[in-house]
Amino acid sequence: MRPLLAELIGTYFLVFVVGLVVGGLAPAEWAPIAVSAVLCVCVCAFGHASGAHFNPAVTIAAWLRRRINAGRMIGYIIAQLLGAYLAVLTCTLMDSWATPAPLVLAGSSQIIVAEGIFTFLLVTVILNVAATKATEGNQYFPFAIAGAVLAGALCVGTISGAVFNPAVGTGLVAMGALPSAKLILYVASQLAGAIAAAWVHGVMYPDEAGRVPPLG
User: Fold this and answer.
1) How many CB atoms lie within 10 A of CB 90?
2) What is the CATH number of the domain that holds 59?
3) SS3 content of the chain, % helix, strand, coil (to 5)
4) Considering the chain, what is the average pLDDT of its residues?
5) pTM above 0.90, yes or no
6) Nearest Cα residue to 131 out of 192, 60, 209, 54
């Protein structure tokens, strides 16, 4: 129960902060810092409990690298999506929160490249700082993960919205900030990036699958 609750709460706060930004309660120019900061503190708070995925793409990559089993993967993804929907519900209950205008997005090919590449970066960073024997026990992994999100948000925020997370994408659709027809494009790009990251990690560390302590 503790890992699932950690995933739910961490994803909740991540999507809640995104909702506050797109709903106009936080300055848009501070969005990359706000999202990176809440991710950093939630990773610090819940990393020991669940591995602090807060992202179905990360969870699938962890499963591919045998850091978690299939049952936990499914449980994590359900908890993450539930956390996202609870965050959307909380946003709508705030009197001063406004239904966001749809994000101004680039073309489909640019979205695919932006979301795929930076999800690859995010998942690669997570696997290397939190699921590799050589870096086991380090104290910098929350900052590395938050840094990857910050870099992506600053670079492609105006192209794709810098989602990098199917749970965040689902939340943005529920908020009305992301067209539902675009969700499959985002999820497919993100999962492709995550799968590629898991493959690269396997090539770099072929003998480590399942050998290090699992992510939660």
Assistant:
1) 15
2) 1.20.1080.10
3) 75, 0, 25
4) 91
5) yes
6) 209
